[in-house]
Here is the input.
Amino acid sequence: MRIKTPTIRGKLLFIFFGYFCVPFLALGLLWYDRSMKTIEENAVRNSEQLMQQINYNLDAYLTDFKKATLPLLNHSVIQQFVKVDPSDQYAYFTMSYRIESEIIPGAVYNRNDIYGLSVISLKGPYFSNIAFADRVKLYTAAIDKKGEDNYRILGIIMTNGTPVITVTRKIIDNETYLTAGYLIIDLSLNRITDIIQNAKLGESGTISIVNSDERYLYHPDSAKWGERLPDSYLQGIKGVNKPYFTYGTGQSKHIVVYNQSAKTGLTIVSEVPLKELTGDLIYFRNLTLGLVLILIVLAFLTIFSFSLSVTRSLSHLLKLMKKAELGDLHVRAPARDDEIGSLNKGFNRMLEDIDRLIEVNRVAHMKEKEMAIRQRESKLQALQARINPHFLYNTLGVINAYAIIAKVKPISQMTVWLSDLFRYSIDNPDQAVPLSEEIKHVFNYMYIQKERYQELLLDADLDVERLGDIATMRFTVQPIVENAFIHGYEGHGIKPSYIGLLAWFDEAGVVLHVIDKGSGMLPEQLDAYNDAFAAVTEEEMLQGNATFGGIGLWNVHSRLRLEFGEPYGLRIVVSGTGGTIVEIKLPYREGKHDVQHPDR
Here is the structure.
């Protein structure tokens, strides 16, 4: 029995249902399930970003506030107040009056976020510009409980019917360096609430602030201020490794997202019903699903109607396709004014695109070969550039060996110094190094100069061991010393006679002076250098162009300023007929800052 060959229309319908509709529906079910999870993940991610933004704004505000109140701790009036003897009532009232007249106007009245300011001396006296007597014992107990932290947020209290956040700062006696008292600042809650209220989580979502004691520092419900976080929250926060947890199911599912600040220790906690975060996303998902179903129905109707007219023209189009398969891309289907004509036009455009893409692919292939050749040439040039310094360094080692054999100590010593210079110079110039390494490099350079100029006096007042705690970059001090030889002495026909290095330490790092006794520069030239060192911004430095002569000095200054920021870099202290002093300011290396013993 002969099986009847299916018609083209039947084949198209079979292909449509078998290879499109069924797989699409299966994938649609899988996509539906996955989309729900993705929507929930996106909602969580958005909430996380919002919490991070709130914490960032809160950190920025509290950091700015912390910096703004730092000068008060060392203010002479505050320092004198905490030293007042409780029995000296005259001194107490005098210092209280000075605080009221000299500190309160600038610290409180000029800032709308500070509600009150109080000072408690460990000797007993206290001062406050608000009603404070009933809170002294409360604050003293809270401070003792919190320990020795220099900056603490105690919580929210009501002051004269106004909610304020109380912050304490420890006052260190500038003579004994012991705790002498505490500065109490009452912050208006308005700034905090402004930061939080700018964020919106659904219609009923809440955002609260929790301190390090796991108590509410702020909550939209003021009755919860100071209360401990619910156990369900604590279990959810501590029981997962993710910055969120959920509770409830279905439409009652809630999501709790939290983000803790590493700077302040405060945790931002948000709670919102998941349906309020995902409502719009689910709507658009369902809308998309409905549109897709409509498109499937339209596609079915289109294929069914199109199959009626396509059968008579497919034979001719099939012949043209066979020719194209054999490599003849110049065949073209005839133009028509119906649907088949559009198909023919598409076929013609396809052949044109294939022909064009073949040419594009050929050109791209040629460019890839050319680029590969250039890359090999670049690698070879880079290898050659590294070979030359190593070759010179190894050659100096051979010269040193011959000098040792010949017992010519000066030549041996100079080759050792010179080889150390080469070894130091072939490393990355942008690498941060301890200042002691750069000074060792400078000594090698000056020892070689000493061999040239026997009467040269090298004067170095340096604590080399402590210089190891200072950060710098390669070739920051040596170019300044070399500049002294070239421009201070040799450029004026003067025989080098003196190079001095003097360093002393402070809280910011080290101040290093490079001193020569050659001929200096004109006053207007010195002012031009120092003005440029102080005024040119980091953005202008990144352009790599000096605004004046002296590229070497500018290169050193800009590298230091871009790496370490202000106030580090160069300054010309003095320059004239008696010589020049160039000052280099450098910071401590990370973890090496010792502010307890600043000395020369």
The chain has a mean pLDDT of 79. Residues 339-405 form the longest helix (67 residues). DSSP finds 15 helices and 17 strands in the chain.
